[in-house]
Design a protein that fits this description.
By secondary structure, this protein is of the alpha/beta class. It has helices spanning about 1-10, 15-35, 40-45, 65-80, 85-135, 145-190, 190-210, 220-235, 240-245, 250-300, 310-320, 320-350, 410-415, 440-445, 460-465, 470-480, 485-490, 510-520, 540-550, 585-595, 595-605, and strands at about 370-380, 385-395, 395-400, 425-430, 430, 445-450, 525-530, 555-560, 570-575, 580-585. The chain is elongated and about 125 Å long. It is found in: Cell membrane.
């Protein structure tokens, strides 16, 4: 029940739909019983003429209510029909049809309003989960598979909708339907009712097995589901870029617009499906009405058929099969719902270890430099950085080189605060980055990674990710600085060309130049380049390197380099081994020392 209570809080904004559902379910349960009970006095008049009541009965108290109602209806039918029994038959059929019509009308209204509650909760849980997915740090996803997270936001949330929220209907509708029906059934025949209690579970199981059918599929709903799944997958794949460019709200808006469309499409689809059941039942009872008329004619006119008082009773017995079957499934549904809710709430209730302090300050400029002071950091058990110290003055380019696993990329992750240091501090203009807001910190940073992370959108929108109000002229200027304008102009629709999933319509060099253009347009004072040219061929590397050099002019840059030829002009080159600095200096100074750096340069020269 704890999970149920936690999930139920999402239903509060839609409580009015819940109350309307309960109200119409009560009417449905009442008319469900009355629609069959109304047959009893009418059949007495039709098939037992000697039971006709010619004097209007007098109400003698609640204890005699059943007899009074039965006699009163008999009296009205007798008065209306007079000497023509067919007139009474028409009245019987008309009243039964009206009662069944009202029953199914209230059934549809109850399901109509619960649809808005169910799909509203579905939409809000998904939006809340997506918001949480974006907020959680990169480290959270080193332990979680993307597919698992996507399954939680799709199938698990759907399971919650089908199980927990279905119980809301069971609580009122099914028990009342059974209660009203059984009361009337006991009034007709206690012995027959006891027999029915043995028969119903068997019949319910058979009907449940035979009546299983697949839900109708809707192309629009499926396409929209694919759309927001795509956004979730891109979010998880490009989370560093989204965070670095403060684009969380942009992607949240994209996702919430998609779920809003899914909400609208699902309401239309489910309301049509909901209409199918009451319509089908009413059409079925319409056929019964015709059979009643025909059978009644055989009794009253042709006198070839014996009257049978169990007709109404059969209808009542059938009337409790569906709710009994639904209640029998409820416990299984609750167990499945509990498992799904646990998985969903695990995401929603995960604490974000990298969050802004209550008194975190906003910083809007970069004046002096970045300091890494006695920084130690580990991903799991073993330290990747140990007592690491580094100063990056404003306007300087500092290159980090070393073998794989030496801690180069870790420094970039710590400066951008994708991870927090275990010991020591990172300061920007004297402010510890833990004391400033993540948004203001990342607004001062530009990030270009080894893997060019692009999104299934136009060239212009990819470049403008960090500056949504950028003009077309600013986008073109950024592309020119990144040596990208020429190839963009040759695309089918220029800057408005969609580049496909992860930018797969472009080459590696083209994708990397778009990433650089994106960083240029953001125009941050600090650039973090994480092996931005290591995956490129020689020609692409030349173009990208030229773009990087233009971008780094008058900026503070931290360059993580794999190819040493690309960082020879850096103000300071820091050589790392196992998380510690072993050499530091300019390119020429390090070559003169004849140490680790010179060996690295010699190894790459031989490899080339």
């Amino acid at each position: 029940m704890d999970y149920f209570k936690k999930i139920l809080r999402f239903a509060k904004p839609y409580s009015k739909y819940g109350y309307l559902n309960i109200f119409f379910n009560i009417l449905y349960a009442l008319f469900s019983a009355l629609s069959f009970a109304a047959l009893i006095p009418m059949l007495d008049v039709l098939f037992k003429p000697e039971n006709k009541v010619t004097v209007e009965p007098v109400y003698e108290g609640f204890g005699q209510l059943k007899d009074y109602l039965q006699d009163y209806i008999n009296y009205r039918v007798t008065v209306y029909s007079g000497d023509d029994e067919m007139k009474g038959l028409v009245l019987v059929i008309g009243l039964v049809l009206v009662l069944f019509l009202l029953k199914n009308f209230f059934n549809y209204l109850a399901m109509y309003f619960i649809t808005f509650l169910r799909n509203g909760v579905l939409k809000d849980i998904r939006n809340k989960m997506y918001q949480k997915i974006v907020e959680l740090p990169v480290s959270f996803y080193s332990e979680k598979r993307k597919g698992d997270v996507i399954a939680r936001i799709t199938s698990d949330v759907l399971e919650i909708q089908h199980s927990f929220l279905s119980i809301l209907e069971l609580i009122v509708r099914e028990p009342l339907t059974i209660l009203f029906t059984i009361l009337i059934m006991f009034g007709i025949s206690t012995k027959l009712t006891l027999f029915v209690f043995i028969f119903i579970p068997i019949a319910g199981a058979i009907i449940s097995r035979i009546g299983k059918s697949l839900k109708k599929k809707s192309d629009r709903v499926q396409r929209e589901q694919g759309e927001f799944l795509s956004i979730v997958e891109e979010t998880l794949g490009g989370l560093r870029v989204i965070k670095a460019f403060n684009a969380e709200s942009h992607f949240y808006q994209l996702f919430s617009r998609s779920t809003k469309r899914f909400f609208r499409f699902s309401n239309t689809l489910l309301n049509r499906q909901n209409l199918a059941s009451p319509t089908g039942e009413f059409l079925g009872i319409l056929v019964i009405g015709v059979l009643l008329w025909f059978g009644g004619r055989m009794v009253l006119v042709e006198e070839t058929l014996d009257p049978s008082s169990f007709i109404a009773y059969m209808g009542l017995a059938y009337n409790i099969l569906t709710p009994a079957k639904a209640i029998s499934k409820a416990s299984y549904g609750v167990k499945k719902g509990n498992a799904a809710a646990e998985r969903v709430l695990e995401i929603l209730e995960t604490e974000n270890p990298i969050s802004d302090k209550p008194n975190a300050v906003e910083i809007s400029s970069f004046e002096r430099g970045i300091e890494l002071q006695n920084v130690s950091f580990k991903y799991e058990d073993e330290y990747v950085l140990k007592n690491f110290n580094l100063s990056v003055p404003k306007g300087h380019t500092v290159a980090l080189v070393g073998q794989s696993g030496s801690g180069k990329s870790t420094i970039a992750n710590l400066i951008t605060r994708f991870y927090d240091v275990n010991e020591g501090a990172i300061a920007l203009d004297g402010h510890s980055i833990k004391d400033v807001t993540k948004s203001s910190l990342r607004s001062l940073l530009g990030l270009v990674t080894q893997d060019s992370i692009l999104f299934n959108d136009t060239v212009a929108n990819n470049i403008a990710l960090g500056k949504k109000d950028a003009s077309e002229a600013e986008i073109i200027e950024a592309a020119k600085i990144a040596n990208a304008h020429e190839f963009i102009s040759e695309l089918p629709e220029g800057y408005h060309t969609n580049i496909g999933d992860s930018g797969n319509k472009l080459s590696g060099g083209q994708k990397q130049r778009l990433s650089i253009a994106r960083a240029v347009l953001k125009n941050p004072p600090i650039m973090v380049l994480d092996e931005a040219t290591s995956a490129l061929d020689t020609e692409s590397e030349r173009l990208v390197q030229d773009a990087l050099e233009k971008m780094m002019l008058n900026r503070t840059s931290i360059v993580i380099a794999h190819r040493l030829s690309t960082i020879q002009n850096a103000d300071t080159i820091v050589v790392l081994q196992k998380g510690e600095i072993v050499e530091k200096g300019t390119h020429s100074e390090l070559l003169e020392r004849d140490g680790v750096y010179k060996k690295l340069v010699a190894m790459q020269s031989l490899a080339n």
